[in-house]
C-alpha cells in the first residue's frame, strides 16, 4: 500500500519505519523534521502531493493548528485528496476540531479516522502503542492492518469522529492526576523525614502501586527529567480537556489544578521541554523542600 505520512518527529519517525518495514511505500513531505537516514521514503514538495499519490494519509503532528494547516492550508492535503482516500490523524488534538476536519474531508469523498496513541517514544519504537480510534467501523477495518503494524492495544471507541480524541484526553487526565498524586505523596513523605525512595518501594507493594509510581516516581527521586513526554505536550492535552469540558458543561477541577502546576513548571527556563514527571518541581517550590534534600 502507498501510505502518505506527514510528521516525522519523535513519534512519527519510528512509526513510519515500521510501516516501511512491513512493505508499504511511504510518501512524505519534509517540514520541521528531516528525513531519517534509515527511512526509505518518496519525498514530495507538498502535503497536497502526498495526498494525490497515496491511498492512505497519516498525520502525526504536535497540535490542532498544525493538523488544520496540513489538511486545509495552502497546498494542504484537502487540495490533493481524491474520493476513496482514507485520512488517519494520529495526533492528539481537539475532539471538537476533529469533527469539523472529518466533515470537510468527507464532502470531498475521503474517509477520516481520528486515532491518537498512547505509549510515547518507547511504544512507537517498539510498535506497542495503544491506539484509540473514532470513525466508521468500515473505515476502521480498512485501517486495522496499519494499526496492527504500529500498536498492540487497538480499540474502536465509537463510530463518531472525535471519539478517539475524547478517549485520549481521558487518558491524559488520568496520567496527569496520577503524576500529581505521586508527586504530592513523595514530597509529603520526604518533608516529614522519610526517604522517598524507601517510601516508593513500600508503596509499590500495595494498592497505591501504579506505572506512574514505578516510572515517574523513580524519575522524581533520581531527578531524571529528560523527556519522555514533554510537559508542554501534556499542558496542551490538558488544555484540550478543559476546552472540551467547557463545551460539555463538565467540571474538571483537579485537571485544572494539574495544568496550573504544569504551567508553573513550564515557566522555568527549559521547563517546557522537561519530562512531565517534573511537575513535582512545582509542589517542591510550594513546599520549600526538594526530594533530593537531606532527611530531617
Notes on the protein architecture:
With 296 residues, this protein is an alpha/beta fold. It has helices spanning 12-21, 47-52, 64-72, 77-80, 95-107, 120-126, 137-150, 163-191, 196-203, 211-222, 231-248, 253-266, 280-287; strands at residues 2-6, 25-28, 42-43, 56-59, 86-89, 111-114, 117-118, 129-134, 151-158. Helix 8 crosses helix 10 (211-222), helix 8 crosses helix 11 (231-248) and helix 11 (231-248) runs antiparallel to helix 12. The longest helix has 29 residues, at 163-191.
Order of helices and strands: EHEEHEHHEHEEHEHEHHHHHH
Number of distinct helices: 13
Give unreliable regions as ranges.
none
What's the shape? elongated
Integer average pLDDT: 95
How many DSSP E strands? 9
Summarize the topology.
Elements: E1 2-6, H1 12-21, E2 25-28, E3 42-43, H2 47-52, E4 56-59, H3 64-72, H4 77-80, E5 86-89, H5 95-107, E6 111-114, E7 117-118, H6 120-126, E8 129-134, H7 137-150, E9 151-158, H8 163-191, H9 196-203, H10 211-222, H11 231-248, H12 253-266, H13 280-287
Parallel strand pairs: 1-2, 1-4, 2-3, 4-5, 5-6, 8-9
Antiparallel strand pairs: 7-8
Helix pairs in contact: 8-10, 8-11, 8-12, 8-13, 9-10, 11-12
Q: Brief overview, please?
A:
The protein has 296 residues and is of the alpha/beta class. Helix content is 51%, strand content 13%.
Question: What are the key terms here?
Answer:
six-stranded parallel sheet, elongated
Amino acid at each position: 500500500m502507498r501510505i502518505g505520512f506527514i510528521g516525522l518527529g519523535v513519534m512519527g519517525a519510528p512509526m513510519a519505519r515500521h510501516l516501511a518495514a512491513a512493505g508499504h511505500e511511504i510518501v512524505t513531505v519534509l517540514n520541521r523534521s528531516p528525513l531519517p537516514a534509515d527511512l526509505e521514503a518518496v519525498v514530495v514538495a507538498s502535503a497536497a502531493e502526498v495526498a494525490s499519490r497515496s491511498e492512505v494519509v497519516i498525520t502525526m503532528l504536535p497540535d490542532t493548528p498544525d493538523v488544520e494547516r496540513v489538511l486545509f492550508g495552502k497546498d494542504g492535503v484537502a487540495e490533493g485528496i481524491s474520493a476513496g482516500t482514507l485520512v488517519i490523524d494520529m495526533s492528539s488534538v481537539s475532539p471538537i476540531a476533529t469533527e469539523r476536519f472529518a466533515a470537510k474531508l468527507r464532502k470531498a469523498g475521503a474517509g477520516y479516522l481520528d486515532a491518537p496513541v498512547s505509549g510515547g517514544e518507547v511504544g512507537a519504537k517498539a510498535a506497542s502503542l495503544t491506539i484509540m480510534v473514532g470513525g466508521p467501523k468500515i473505515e476502521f477495518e480498512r485501517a486495522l492492518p496499519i494499526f496492527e503494524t504500529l500498536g498492540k492495544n487497538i480499540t474502536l471507541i465509537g463510530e463518531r469522529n472525535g471519539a478517539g480524541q475524547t478517549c485520549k484526553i481521558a487518558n491524559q487526565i488520568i496520567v496527569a492526576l496520577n503524576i500529581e498524586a505521586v508527586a504530592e505523596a513523595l514530597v509529603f513523605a520526604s518533608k516529614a523525614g522519610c526517604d522517598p525512595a524507601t517510601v516508593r518501594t513500600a508503596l509499590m507493594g500495595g494498592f497505591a502501586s501504579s506505572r506512574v509510581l514505578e516510572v515517574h516516581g523513580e524519575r522524581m527521586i533520581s531527578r531524571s527529567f529528560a523527556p519522555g513526554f514533554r510537559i508542554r505536550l501534556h499542558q496542551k492535552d490538558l488544555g484540550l480537556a478543559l476546552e472540551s469540558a467547557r463545551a460539555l458543561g463538565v467540571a474538571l477541577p483537579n485537571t485544572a489544578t494539574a495544568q496550573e502546576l504544569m504551567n508553573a513548571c513550564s515557566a522555568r527556563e527549559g521547563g517546557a521541554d522537561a519530562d512531565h514527571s517534573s511537575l513535582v518541581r512545582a509542589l517542591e517550590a510550594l513546599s520549600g523542600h526538594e526530594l533530593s534534600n537531606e532527611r530531617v
